[in-house]
Every structure is written in C-alpha cells, then in structure tokens.
Write a sequence for this structure.
C-alpha cells in the first residue's frame, strides 16, 4: 500500500503520498523539541495556512499500481495542488488542526490516467512530559480519469519521545480502509505498525530519518491479501546557493510483499519487491514563493508480469504559501 496528501506530486502510488505526509507530521513534532525549533516554529502562530502548487512534469511510464496497469508509454503532465489548514487551537501542550487537500494531474495524451484527489484531515497532539501523543485522520476521495476510483480512510495514532537532545523515537500504527467503486474484490483493510528514528546533526539543520514497518492487508478478493514489510531512509540537507537558503531532500524506500493465496493467472502465489528513490529540492524565490524540483524512480519486481513497473518522473513547479 502506498498513499495521498500533499507531500508528493503526481504519484501513481496514492498511499505513498500519505506515508510521506505522515513523515512530515512526525518531523514537525520532532522539530518542535529539537535544536531546529526556532526555524520550524516561524510563522506557525497563524490560524489559517494555505499552499498552492502548479507544476509541469514528465513520466517515463504512466501507470496505476492499485490495478497493476501500466501504459508502457511516456507522457508529460500538468500538476495542480491546493492545501488549506485551520488551527483550532494550539497551547504549550495541545494542538488540533483540520485540513483540506486537492490535487489533480492532467496528462497531455493519456488522460485516462489523470488522478484527482480530494482529502479532508484532522491532526491532534498532546504533550505528555517530554513526549508527544498524536492522532491523524484523513478521508480521501480519488478519481481516475473522469470516474470515481476509490475512497480511502486513514487513521494513525502515534507516540514520540526524545532519546537524547538529537535523537527522537516514534512508534505508530497505521490503519487504512479502501473501498473501490469498480473492482470490489480490491476493497481492503490494511494494518501497519511502524517505528521511526530521527537524528539531528549537532549545530546543523541536517537530519536523517530511518523507519521500518510490518504490513498486513486483507482484501475482499483473496488473491490480493498479503503480508509484507518496508524499510525507509531519508535525509534533509540545507544548502546555500548564491545567498539563497535552499533545501535538498533524498530518500529511499524498500517494500516486500508476499501474497497469501494463489493468483489464478499465475497458478502460484504472487510476490512483489518495490524500491523507490526520490531526490527533491526547494529554492525560495520570495518569502512566500518557492521553486520546487524533484525526480523519482520506482521499480517493482513481481512474478505477476502486469505488476512489473519501471517508472521515472521529473517535475518542476512553483508553490505559494500564505
């Protein structure tokens, strides 16, 4: 499973978007107690925050992982996004935010692969001594082409604690429910225990994150039920380019899945091995306007031929924050 909110653009793996959003929210908690706190808290007193994004990209193999469908064709696309959040309250020990996220990809030729996402979310946190308990809920309505594709609910309770002044530990459980409008056999319940470590380099805004998870997904159609695990590593590095404070991010994710039951077209049990590498950077143009550039490679090896995917994407766009 891979997920949807606002951190990753034009992904063929909607769950990967949500997993990245979870990483971002966990990072915000860690930053709140880290040596980077002053920079992280700048501007967060505003009750309302908005972000708009408009970009243009290239996809070497337009595909949709949920249906194991790959076009085998390259295409260019426009990418639009809008995010809004409202802070109901924030004290020294508690916070509650609600948000709405919209994203839309528009392919030049393969418009049957256009993905639109509308998501509403709630994010709450409670400090307990030096630790933080959190709860994230999101409901996502996803359209593929011009038609409803699936609805997804996402729940993520978590607990984060400092181990040292530079190291933070986070444990969480992710629950996902997916309800498809077309192929009901893919309706799924997904449980994913997850652990993360954050390390902040002394005297620097550079930090790394490593995480591991176990995945169990049960589907209405028995051939799609699987167990698996995932490993992930990320690094964020501040850059100084021509007196501009830029930011570089690099990440790699590995996922292994073994399916419980025989896939009829294979006559055997299916397996998937997925690796994803992403490199992105952000360059401030003004205080509120930024240039965002990213590249990503996704490779999936499976004994089911239609599930094999090699996909590279590049994109550049402008984001405006208010």
């Amino acid at each position: 499973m891979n997920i949807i909110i606002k951190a990753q653009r034009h992904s063929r793996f909607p769950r990967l978007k949500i997993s990245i959003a979870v990483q971002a929210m966990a990072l915000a908690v860690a930053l709140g107690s880290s040596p980077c706190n002053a920079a992280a808290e700048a501007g967060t007193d505003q009750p309302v925050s908005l972000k708009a994004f408009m970009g243009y990209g290239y996809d070497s193999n337009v595909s949709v992982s949920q249906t194991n469908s790959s076009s085998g064709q390259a295409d260019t696309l426009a990418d639009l996004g809008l995010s809004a959040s409202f802070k109901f309250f924030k004290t020294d020990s508690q916070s509650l935010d609600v948000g709405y996220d919209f994203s839309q990809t528009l392919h030049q030729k393969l418009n049957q692969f256009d993905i639109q996402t509308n998501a509403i979310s709630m994010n709450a946190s409670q400090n307990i001594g030096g630790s933080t308990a959190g709860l994230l809920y999101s409901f996502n309505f996803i359209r593929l082409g011009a038609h409803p594709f699936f609805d997804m609910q996402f729940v993520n309770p978590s607990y984060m604690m400092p181990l040292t002044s530079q190291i933070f530990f986070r444990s969480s459980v992710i629950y996902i429910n997916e309800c498809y409008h077309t192929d009901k056999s893919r309706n799924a319940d997904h449980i994913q225990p997850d652990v993360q470590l954050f390390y902040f380099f002394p005297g620097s805004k550079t930090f790394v994150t490593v995480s591991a998870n176990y995945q169990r997904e049960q589907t209405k159609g028995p051939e799609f039920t699987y167990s698996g695990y995932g490993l992930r590593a990320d690094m964020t590095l501040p850059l100084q380019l021509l007196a501009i404070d830029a930011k570089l991010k690099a990440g790699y994710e590995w996922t292994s899945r073994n399916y419980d039951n025989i896939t009829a077209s294979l006559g055997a049990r299916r397996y998937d091995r997925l690796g994803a590498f992403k490199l992105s950077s952000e360059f401030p143009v003004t205080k509120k306007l930024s240039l965002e550039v990213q590249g990503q490679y996704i490779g999936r090896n499976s004994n089911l031929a239609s599930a094999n995917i090699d996909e590279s994407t590049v994109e550049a766009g402008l984001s405006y924050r208010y």
